[in-house]
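Reply to thread "Modeling small-molecule complexes from scratch"

Following up on the discussion above, here's a worked example others can learn from. I took a protein sequence and the SMILES for flavin-adenine dinucleotide and predicted the complex. Inputs first:
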Amino acid sequence: MDKTDLQSPMLVSQAVLITPLELSSASISTRSTSFSLLRTWRYPVYPVSFKLRISLGPLLMFYRLFALLYSSTKSDTKFTMVRAPFLGLNHLSMRAGDLQTSSRSLSIGIVGGGVAGLYAALLLQRAGYRVHVFEGTDRLGGRVHTHYFNDEENQYFEAGAMRIPNSSHHSIVFDLIKYLQCSKLPSDMQIDLIPYNLTSPGNFVYINRSTAKFLDASSTTPRSVNWSLPGGAKAKFQDRSAKELMLEAVGPLLQKLDANFNDGFKEICRKFDHYSFRFYLTSILGWPTEVVDFLETVISQTNQFALSVTEIIMEFIDFSTKEWSTIAHGMNRLPLAMAHLIGYKNITLNARVNGVRNKDDGRVSISISGCDTTIDVTFDKVIMAIPPPALRMITNRPAWSEKKELAIRSMHFESLYKMGLRFKTRFWERVGPASCRGGQSTTDLPIRWIVYPSNGIGDDGPGVLLVYSWMTDADVWVPLTPEERRDLALANLAEVYNGKIDTKDGSVINVYDLILATSDAAWSARNCTGDAKFLPGQFSSRFEAARQPEGNIYFAGEHLSRHHTWIAGALESSWETVSNIIGPIPKLGPPDIRSSAKAEEEGEEVLKLKQRVDVGSGLDVANWEGTITTGGNGERGKVDFVLRLPKQLLGFDLLDLDNDRSGRSGVEIVRIPGSQGAKVRRI
Ligand SMILES: Cc1cc2nc3c(=O)[nH]c(=O)nc-3n(C[C@H](O)[C@H](O)[C@H](O)COP(=O)(O)OP(=O)(O)OC[C@H]3O[C@@H](n4cnc5c(N)ncnc54)[C@H](O)[C@@H]3O)c2cc1C
């Protein structure tokens, strides 16, 4: 087995796929920006890693030419990322001086290239603001991360987010996906949703060294897994399934959220947020500790009921959802597609922000380190889209309000651990009378959950399953070496599977013979993150303070939503933060009336866009780099727009301002930036 397979996906990508090569650094200053030019050039190499320092001069010309030629011939996503830093800071330095002429031209720096940071960038660009995203690592997506073992179909596992419930709480994710699906994207970034099976008939529970056959965890009863209960509790609890018990405990509270989410959430916070879920079950509902232990073991993970009632209710709000989806070819496509639309010139990788400073004129300067260099960049506003443990590592910053500092220090993050294991066959689909075609089996072993892929079901040849643990169950993996982690996972899987018969070819299963490669992600060991999971009282006492801006420094991320541990939460938080900065705006969504403009070519450089719009009581046109011809301001009723745009501007959005609280009304044309050429993109 290749040793690199044992490393975390992030380490694998650093070691094998790409290596930072610092080209140069030089100082540039403009009216609003003063910083060194940091260039990061990364290109594919083979396992050898090296760094070079060379000076700017004539090599830059050669580098630009090479990079342009190179990027125009490659569509592989690994290489498209290479293009990002090439245009990054240089572009920003050239443009920053132009940005102060109108409020629309504010420059906004975004720290963190997870989905929260990328979504903020897309929203702001749509509204006409200039943005630049700084990501501290060599890849985008943060906790959305697919690890590909190789280029063959379905040979990957989701080290981070893996599934999306088709429920109204996640509509922001599905709307974003529709938005991306309507955009022009390279074929290796197209997003297709496929069903994600939450359960499958062969899923089982393996507790106390024995298997409760073919039960998904929620149908398990204390009796079915020989769980010891005190005499007095047996009659009442031993034949009740985990699902029934959970519904009895949280059903009434879930109904409150269903009836009116905001009011329900406030009420739950007011009445129960200061209780741990365990306290709620034992002291408010009066359940015996043994029943609570059973429930926590089969449907949650060790010590998770120490979290607040509010957190556990929010965790279970989605699990009654019947249909779930995942992204074909990997969830990675979500951040990659977002980055493509943002434009690689507006993103810099390997740019870790380690300082934030308020300037006398109200703007915000951030210090960025990467490739042995530190630079300062100034923006009108900055969004910190990074988790609190990462924020806390930035010590070179002003002291914020006492409540904010307390929130950053205390918001609780739980550990998360996943390992993907690639085997020669998908034996889990071929064991016994019922097969595991998706869903998951639950154990009380260190691996805790065995999650079966919903992609490639029924394929012959190799397949990948993953093991998944959280909280205390995840902590135990962190101190182990990669080899020890692999051995532990295999030993646990062997305990469950070895000796069983593969019904397809009659062979006796031995996971040690079948293993091809492993890769893992201990999220608490990287970027200081797992997922936000609040302790008792934290929603009531920390949440609001954590969300508040500090002057022109704003905050976003999964932890600042009420929907922790979901992509939806990260996007919601981002949308709220951007709305806070620029006023109420629509979320990104599928095309609507605004997309009906007709585009015609007019000469080599110009696109002519025609649209008939009902402008209501006036026309307010933000003329960016195009020319607009209308019947004239003050016109009522239908007006024909003709907008001439240089071809490099990708598309446009007619933003309906009727609901704009600023009192403006009419139609505003906002250009949609992008990098993919002359075609007009319909949005
Ligand atoms: C194991 C696991 C399973 C999950 N399962 C699901 C699921 O099935 N469905 C679902 O919807 N959600 C799931 N989630 C949750 C979801 O992935 C997250 O809620 C979401 O991706 C968080 O996005 P974010 O942008 O807020 O934070 P992040 O993704 O953490 O992004 C923050 C980014 O900031 C960068 N950064 C940190 N510090 C700095 C710095 N100083 N300078 C520059 N950059 C910095 C980080 O490298 C990172 O890229 C899962 C998460 C994990 C870890």
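What I'd highlight from this example: Residues 111-117, 134-137, 142-144, 160-164, 352-353, 385-387, 390, 394, 416, 418, 523, 527, 529, 531, 557-558, 565-570 surround flavin-adenine dinucleotide (CB under 6 Å). The CA atoms of residues 415 and 475 lie 6 Å apart. Questions welcome below.
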